[in-house]
């Protein structure tokens, strides 16, 4: 049917309201035969829809290696970017399409291209816990410490110990700070990801590292009522009575925030308040008058 339409001079370049041509739809629906016919009849391979996506973006997004190869081998722009500044390689990073990623990088795709937020394909592979694609990218020269606009390299988004180990193998900096002065371990803690936090500590990150306010990781865990994370940090050796730049301990902050569960938990580990704070230098035995038990 398609061949007959083309033989009768159907406009092969016509776009619909979404800016898509027939080639876009053929790639999106993984119709390899249709793509071959359209290429034979002169379809414009780099036509972009309203989101500036080409047929190659759609083929990569649908994990269709055969169509990706067809398009690239016939001259499709391998570095064409969509409205967000992303090439087809980004789609492989999101979808864990390591074979397509391997094909694209071996055919000249810009591996360290950054989108409008400054993210590379490696950032997306790590964010989506797609280790296989990440390894392909790193093996072909992805810059492991390249920062996005927030100042974050890929390791800030590492979600498990295996990915952390992979990134470290390729030279990831664990003490690299983002724009707000936070480290990758802070991001892992914000996600309440104990395994990732443990992975960072085991690879040399100081458990008592502080931010610009003098707050340790324990402050973050208590602020967010992460009880399991709090227990993990304490049992792993974090200083429970560390003082921030205001001269306050984490118990002071817990009392100020009326975090009763956290107050109980901290006191059970012998936390004390500071002379400046809301705990007024009280030790656990002094809290009998504090109606939380």
Automatic annotation (TrEMBL):
SMART domains per UniProt: ANK
Protein's UniProt keywords contain Oxidoreductase: no
InterPro entries: Ankyrin_rpt, Ankyrin_rpt-contain_sf, Multifunctional_regulatory
Pfam family, one: Ank_2
ANK repeat start and end residues: 18-50, 51-83, 84-116, 117-149, 180-212, 213-245
UniProt keyword annotations, A-Z: ANK repeat, Repeat
Protein known as: Ankyrin repeat protein, putative
Lineage: Eukaryota, Metamonada, Parabasalia, Trichomonadida, Trichomonadidae
